[in-house]
Amino acid sequence: MSLNSSAALQIARVLTDALPFIQRFTGKVIVIKYGGNAMVDDVLKNGFARDVVLMKLVGMKPVVVHGGGPQIGKLLQRIGKETQFVDGMRVTDRETMDVVEMVLGGLVNKEIVNLVNRHGGMAVGLTGKDGDLIRARKYHVVRKSPELAASEIIDLGHVGEVASIDTAIINMLVSGNFIPVIAPIGVGEDGRSYNINADLVASKLAESLRAEKLILLTNTAGVLGASGEVLTGLDVRHVEALIADGTIHGGMLPKVRAAVDAVHGGVAYAHIIDGRIEHAVLLEVLTSEGVGTLIARQKNL
């Protein structure tokens, strides 16, 4: 069935409007943290895979970092393993870490790889243990309260933070026309595996790769203002002010901190976008309006 002239013209306009963005970001590394609804809804999953494949085909260099908290929780529940959280972080003993590695490095990672490959890409799945990609150090929660003479240090087990990143294996894959898909598991100096927050891994990886963009998919419209409006075109100073006055709070804080850290580390732009929208990544990269919040070091966007 042929298109009518109006529909054909609209498609042509969409394609030509995308051209300057394609030209601008060809050859640039774009790190995408994949999580939330976009990982569980079939329509969104397929849309994400197509977005990543198209980005690669037009010359961009997408690198995917994924989460998988809900999938870990479901398997732990199935085997009767109780889960404890401290400040939103899962306490991870050795048995739980085995499950984390199996789910993140196996089930979830290979599902994403398969999905991208089915849509015409060439994805390769990794954890931070492959190629000595992510060196981790143990993370402790430090709590301060007036009742305690000294700060309370809480051991979360196999929960880590990024100590260093060796991008050699990622550079090799990207230059070989592959799309790396990375599970956020690192290895410590003690040889133990550590589960690391995927937003933080994506942020540090974007810095290390000198990425043009860091894109964090969320289950919200982006960073919201006091009246519930989506804020975008923010610079770091404005973001810090929004944190200080409490506008940015709760679960959005760690994502914003990850975005700001990446920008401080040399990433040109960080985006916190609504992953509940089909083709959210393409809409953010290839249109001027976008579908979320853009953060840059200075307001010369």
Brief summary:
This protein has 301 residues and is an alpha/beta fold. It is 40% helix and 25% strand. The protein has one domain (25-296): Acetylglutamate kinase-like (Carbamate kinase, 3-Layer(aba) Sandwich).
Order of helices and strands: HEHEHEEHEEEHEEEHEEHHEHE
Largest sheet: 8 strands, mixed
CATH architecture: 3-Layer(aba) Sandwich
DSSP helix fraction: 25-40%
Principal-axis shape: globular
- Write out the CATH superfamily name: Acetylglutamate kinase-like
Structural Rg: 20 Å
Pick out the low-confidence regions.
none
Put simply, the count of helices is 9
- What is the end-to-end distance? 42 Å
Number of domains: 1
Average pLDDT, all residues: 90
Attribute tags:
single chain; 301 residues; alpha/beta; Carbamate kinase; eight-stranded mixed beta sheet
Kindly describe this structure.
The chain has nine helices and 14 strands. With 301 residues, the chain is an alpha/beta fold. It has one domain (25-296): Carbamate kinase (3-Layer(aba) Sandwich), CATH 3.40.1160.10. It is globular, with a radius of gyration of 20 Å. The termini are far apart. The strands form four sheets. It has an eight-stranded mixed beta sheet with strand order 5-8-2-1-11-13-14-12, with helices on both faces. It has a two-stranded antiparallel sheet with strand order 3-4.
Question: What is the fold's blueprint, element by element?
Answer:
Layout: H1 5-25, E1 29-34, H2 42-57, E2 61-66, H3 69-78, E3 85-86, E4 89-90, H4 94-118, E5 123-127, E6 134-143, E7 152-165, H5 168-175, E8 179-183, E9 185-187, E10 193-195, H6 198-208, E11 213-218, E12 234-235, H7 236-244, H8 252-264, E13 269-274, H9 280-286, E14 292-296
Parallel strand pairs: 1-2, 1-11, 2-8, 5-8, 11-13, 12-14
Antiparallel strand pairs: 3-4, 6-7, 9-10, 13-14
Helix pairs in contact: 2-4, 3-4, 6-8
